[in-house]
Design brief:
Elements: H1 7-32, E1 35-41, H2 59-67, E2 69-75, H3 81-90, H4 104-110, H5 121-127, E3 131-136, E4 166-168, H6 177-181, E5 200-201, H7 211-226, E6 233-239, E7 246-247, H8 250-253, H9 282-285, H10 302-332, E8 339-345, E9 350-351, E10 357-358, H11 364-367, E11 371-374, E12 384-391, H12 395-403, H13 417-421, E13 432-436, E14 439-443, E15 447-452, E16 460-464, H14 480-491
Parallel strand pairs: 1-6, 1-8, 2-12, 3-4, 3-6, 5-7
Antiparallel strand pairs: 2-11, 8-11, 9-10, 13-14, 14-15, 15-16
Amino acid sequence: MMIKLKPQYLLIGLLLFICSCISKSKEQQQEKKPNILFIAVDDLRPELGCYGNQIIQTPNIDRLANDGVLFSNHYVTVPTCGASRYGLLTGKLPAAVEDLNNNVMVHKITKNKENKSPETFIHHLRNHGYYTVGIGKISHHPDGLVYGYQEKSDNAPLELPYSWDEMLLNPGKWKTGNNAFFGYADGSNRNSLNKKVKPYEQIAESDDDYVDGLSANLATQKLKEFKKHNKPFFLGVGFFKPHLPFNAPKKYWDMYERDSIPLSTGTELPENVHMASLNNNGELNQYLLGDEKPTLKEPATDAYARKLKHAYYASVSYIDAQVGKVLKALKDQGLYENTIVVLWGDHGWQLGDHHMWGKHACFERALHSPLIIKMPGSMNERQSVNSNIVSTIDIYPTIMDMAGLEMPYETKGRSLEPLLTATQDKNWENVAFSYYRKGISLRTKKYRLTKYFRKQKPVIELFNYEDDPDELHNIAAGRHKLIDSLTPLWAAGNTGLYQN
């Protein structure tokens, strides 16, 4: 017997069917959004195999570069952790002196109420359907919580209160993120030992004897969970090394013969440059049990310079292994193809260049850092090294483009998407701006022009990288026409921060 339904029931059934189809369509669209894995590595200069270093052992990062686009001329806005990350997360150039401070996010974000303008690009992704998880150091503080070095982290506020669905760190035996950041294999740390420690260590056997191994494990666990999610995810993994202290398990030290590690090719102090432009190694020398206390006037011996560089290389290889674990987990969960992967160094580090050990200066080795971007899908036809000049502030609009989202406000940052699909873009302006020590620095393909707002002279530095790749000769004196031709480009980066 055939049962006839009343018209109103047919209409209700049709509406339910349409709603079900719309719901499924939305879910399918959401699933098609690319996931994003963002890996931040502290103090990582482009001392990697994929950047041409034939001694350092970084096979996992090298493989990622082979799958994506390596930007060989990427520059940060500020050569210090917190301010560089503020530029990354907001896409903004520093507009006030406080924007050069490590605690800029605490002053400008942490205590603010949520509003229409997102606090970071992660917040913007979260507002548009992404499930956001941070592990380790993405903003300035090692666990994303704001508290003092020797304070407990209980009830500490989030540095980025609206960006995260989850902000995680396993601090292990060190108990807090700040202690783990400066941690040694026995569970001690620089903070509680009042800096009476060495700036390196090689006694650990396991990757998990330092916190970055624990962070890699945590990231692997989260990727297994994401496999079950319907939402696209943003996973930020912030590794601590090779930030001081240069601590890494012994097996990574054993990868290198110390005598085969070359010293810097630009150890001399640059000519016609005031000492006020340079960094006198305060970051290194606060490790009170260091073998030597190198300064600008009394540089490290060759033996100590090699030891420190050996320690740095070991720390980089240790982090490369952790990156490898995370990428393997991404592949094992079947997520690699539909995931944007970005690997970024928050600034470089002077390894004896110009007698400097650290980053706080407007010189090439401090401002130049790695940037590798893998787009979703196969990269077989797009493997490349891109040599255009790009900036950290370009990452925000790039991620927005790749995620199919609009920029929520105007910035000086430019989407790198055209450079991800072609080795060159004729319309690309090859400039990047950096700021520190009362200076504003312009980098072009050939030159670096830095102008300082200070009394000490000279206040203008000009380096020609074709003739002088190690920045040993400031050629500003007598080059007025060249400086005049570069000044309009430089002026585009003068936000007025030193005149405020």
